[in-house]
Design goal:
The protein is of the alpha/beta class and about 230 residues long. It has a single domain (about 5-234), classed as Acetylglutamate kinase-like (Carbamate kinase, 3-Layer(aba) Sandwich). About 40% of the residues lie in helices and about 20% in strands. It is built from eight helices and eleven strands. Strand 1 (about 5-10), helix 1 and strand 2 form a beta-alpha-beta unit. Helix 1 (about 25-40) crosses helix 3. The model has no long low-confidence stretch (mean pLDDT about 95).
Length: about 230
Amino acid sequence: MKYKRILLKLSGEALMGEQSYGIDINRVQQYAKEIQEIHSMGLEVAIVIGGGNIHRGLSAEQAGMDRVQADYMGMLATVINSMALQDALEKNGMKTRLLTAIKMEQICEPFIRRRAVRHLEKGRVVIFGAGTGNPYFTTDTAASLRAIEINADAVLKGTRVDGIYTADPEKDPNAQKFEQISFTEVYEKGLNVMDMTAFTLCQENNLPIIVFDMNKSGNLKKLAEGEDIGTIVS
């Protein structure tokens, strides 16, 4: 197996499935099965989910809401998504722990780095909720930060497209896919992989990012086994 410990980053929008808002339980269950496959291979799995299917801080700010207030609401949205995924993972027979950057004792543990690492070592799937606990930081940044803190081998960014392209493949039929690309090239070409804070964190800590299509069944397993799925940034 190519990796020992990974951090899987999922977007909140991905959980909507075919809906225009909220959580599609079928999509969550599909993801849980995919995660169960790689977990049963002995891979240590940590997860960060966005909250865009419920609330987007930036959109709320543009509509006139205070940015800090809007961002905290977004963090709570990620916890709702994390709880939905936690439930689906446990229904698939996995032991899980939800750790959040904002204390919510009744439903999860506070994020403590050593505790998170210990859970992973014991074979539990660890979900990190509430972003970094700070406004102005995205869940991409939270994913990069947590991945570095737990010494993950890579960040696997599950999206709707099967990698990084020269342009948006959903809009431009002539967009070319990169199989592999360096951090420097991403900067120079102005490609949108993650926000700059998240991206720079990965670059400075030599943490590879793999962008792949999470909605295609079996992709996650293929990645874990070392197949060249998606685009690797290193």
